[in-house]
Amino acid sequence: MIIAVARAFDGADAYDEAARVQAYAASRLAERIAALPLPRPLRILEIGCGTGLLSQALIARIPQGDWLLTDIAPAMLKRCAARIGPIQQVAYAVVDGEHPAVDGRFDLICSSFAFQWFTDLPAALERLTALLNPGGTLAFATMAEGSFAEWDDAHRTATGSGAAMATYPSADALRAMGATVELESVREAHHDARAFLASLRAIGAHRPRAARPPVAAPALRRAMAAFEAAGATVTYTIAYGTISL
Fold it and tell me: Which one-letter DSSP state was computed for residue 192?
């Protein structure tokens, strides 16, 4: 699974052009983090930095930081470094965020739109919070229950099988993991089903999290038609969460 995710994001060359909701969530998360009563200067770890959407937004708001920006996909990490440019206080590392092999402790650990790829999120959150200094905070944005419901409904109707996308945690589930959570729903319109599926491919999210047989072409066409009949719009349910020590 780790290799498959890394390969999917390594090949997402058009990520920034398609990642409209991801950019919005990163900006919103950066605003929330900047408002937290965190000490200065900070030692900061970012999990799943991608092309640097959150990194750039946070560095602009918290310039007094010692940053370690990480991602599981080497190509994404290179794109992030190109976006951020040469800053002495910023280091980069290829890291599996679910099992982070990093040195030391951090005042802030942050992540935007990476946690939905984790196999065991509760265990991952325990590992990440164990890397916090006393008084530190883990802050994240992730996909929550209800995301892509329109495509799931079209897929379920056309194929008679389960949801097309991954199962995302509910707000209550995230709170049970120790997080303070706020939800936001963002709707994204597409020209048609083909454009929606192309957008998933562009952001590296076209592969289902769990392996399964491919959908037969006639069923996929029925799902696409049902999706378009419903308006070709999808909802992202975004959970903004914090865990503070």
Answer: S
What's the gap between Cα 22 and its chain centre?
7
pTM exceeding 0.85: yes
**Which of helix, strand or coil describes residue 207?**
coil
Query: Do the strands 65-71 and 42-47 form a parallel or antiparallel pair, or are they unpaired?
Result: parallel
160 falls within a domain: no
Which of helix, strand or coil describes residue 179? coil
In DSSP terms, which residues pair with 142 in a beta bridge? Answer: 239
> Which residues, listed in sequence order, are joined to residue 182 by a DSSP beta bridge?
240
Query: Where do the DSSP E strands lie in the chain?
Result: 42-47, 65-71, 90-94, 106-112, 132-143, 180-189, 233-244
Q: Domain for residue 73, yes or no?
A: yes
For 82-92, what is each residue's pLDDT tens digit?
999 988 899 99
Q: 10 Å Cβ neighbour count for 158?
A: 20
The helix (run of H) or strand (run of E) holding residue 99 is none
Count of domains for the chain: 1
Count of C-beta atoms within a 10 Å radius of residue 150: 19
Measured distance CA(109)–CA(47) in Å, rounded: 7
Q: pLDDT for 188-225, tens place per residue?
A: 999 999 999 999 888 766 455 555 667 788 988 999 99
| Block residue for tokens 């200067």 | 41
CA 180 → CA 74, 128, 140, 141, distances in Å? Answer: 31, 16, 10, 12
CATH of the domain at 174: 3.40.50.150
Return the structure tokens found at 212: 């399964």
